[in-house]
Amino acid sequence: LVSLLVGASSNKEFLVEISGTTVTITCPLTGSNIVWSSPGRKSDDARKYIIENHDSSPVNVTCSSAGKTYELYLNARVCANCEELDALAVTGIITADLLITLGVLILVYYFSKDRKGRASASAGSRPRGQKMQRPPPVPNPDYEPIRKGQREVYAGLESRGF
């Protein structure tokens, strides 16, 4: 994260480069007598100002030459073990991740589809043909229909009122 505040009189910008814990700031002024000032840091007579072992704390940096002054508020987070990735590497990582995920999904689908077929066959269920009609259910002897001449079987049953 780099935040830049440049004075109102300037149309140019600072160039800030971060590598590990080293921050390099290039002043927009072109000249040989550029003076850098930063609280707690030494000033150099060069166009580039290098801060080594930056501790990620906000810093106000000023460069001036021939009456012109440019100010920079630097709020940069740095780390010693960070690696910078370009857009191509990030795109490659995301694409590889999506392809691997898609491959795992296809494998899970394939093996789960195959297991369903085996599970029903090993459960002992009868093999089904092509839309065979089911036979009618076996009649329950407790619910036989009343036939003529057999009313005495059901004579003891009377209707009950609710």
TrEMBL record:
One of its GO terms (molecular function) is transmembrane signaling receptor activity. Residues 119-149 are annotated as: Disordered. PROSITE patterns: ITAM_1. It comes from the Eukaryota. GO terms for cellular component: alpha-beta T cell receptor complex; external side of plasma membrane. Its main location: membrane. The keyword Signal applies. The keyword Chaperone does not apply. It is a single-pass type I membrane protein. Pfam families: Ig_5 (PF16681). Keywords: Cell membrane, Immunity, Immunoglobulin domain, Membrane, Receptor, Signal, Transmembrane, Transmembrane helix. It is found in: Cell membrane. InterPro entries: CD3_esu/gsu/dsu, Ig-like_fold, Phos_immunorcpt_sig_ITAM. GO terms for biological process: cell surface receptor signaling pathway; positive thymic T cell selection. The chain crosses the membrane at residues 87-111. PANTHER family: T-CELL SURFACE GLYCOPROTEIN CD3 EPSILON CHAIN, T-CELL SURFACE GLYCOPROTEIN CD3 GAMMA CHAIN / DELTA CHAIN. This is T-cell surface glycoprotein CD3 epsilon chain.
